[in-house]
Amino acid sequence: MPSAASFKVAEQIKTIAAQMLQRRIQDPRLGFVTITDARLSKDWHTCELFYTVLGTVEDRAETEAALEAAKGQIRTQVARQLAMRFTPQIVFVADALPDQSRDFEELLAQVKATDAQIAAGASGATYAGDEDPYRKPPVETDDEADEAEFEGSPEVDDEEEPHPGETERELA
After folding, report:
1. Rounded Cα gap, residues 95 and 35, in angstroms
2. What's the sign of the alpha-carbon dihedral 4, 10, 11, 12?
3. For a Cys-Cys bond, which of 5, 66, 157, 158 suits 27, CB 3.0-4.6 Å?
4. pLDDT digit string (tens) for 94-148?
């Protein structure tokens, strides 16, 4: 994980490079380019600037050539503004994120179409057996529950039985 200082310097380099591309570099090959990210190596000798280009494959190739040509001017400006002991080498890397997101969107569209086909096929489907295939205990009515309650309980006599050791006279 990069340190906070490394992250801060990388962001400053990214800002300087973006300003240079917008204001100072007047190369006609330079298309609609955006600097998306900057990563500084651990020893701060190399800075990778990730960029995206809006346009066709030819526009991307022309922009890549223009960025390679402008690399020295950008590094010089970074050295002037940051006043570092060693100015890092600038490396431009085409950002793969837009291509990946486009591929991801295509995959999501395919999955959505497949889900729609499955839903259309399942709309008229019926169950192979019962709607609920699980067994459930039988439901007892109130009369059956009352009978089951009395069947298991011992019978109670209304007459009292004498306790052991008591005689009939004491009870009377």
Report:
1. 9
2. positive
3. 66
4. 988 878 888 899 999 999 999 988 888 888 777 777 777 787 888 877 766 666 5
Cα–Cα distance list, 123 to 16, 61, 98, 117 (Å) = 58, 50, 37, 10
State the pTM of this model.
0.60
Please give the single-letter amino acid code of residue 41: S
Sequence-ordered alpha helix ranges (H) in 36-89: 57-82
- List the beta bridge partners of residue 113: none
Q: Kindly write down the DSSP assignment for every residue of 95-126, as one continuous string.
A: --HHHHHHHHHHHHHHHHHHHHHHHHHHTT--
- Domains, the chain, in order of start with CATH, read 4-94 (3.30.300.20)
Residue 168 token pair: 């009939």
DSSP state of 50: E
89-94 and 46-54 strand pairing: parallel
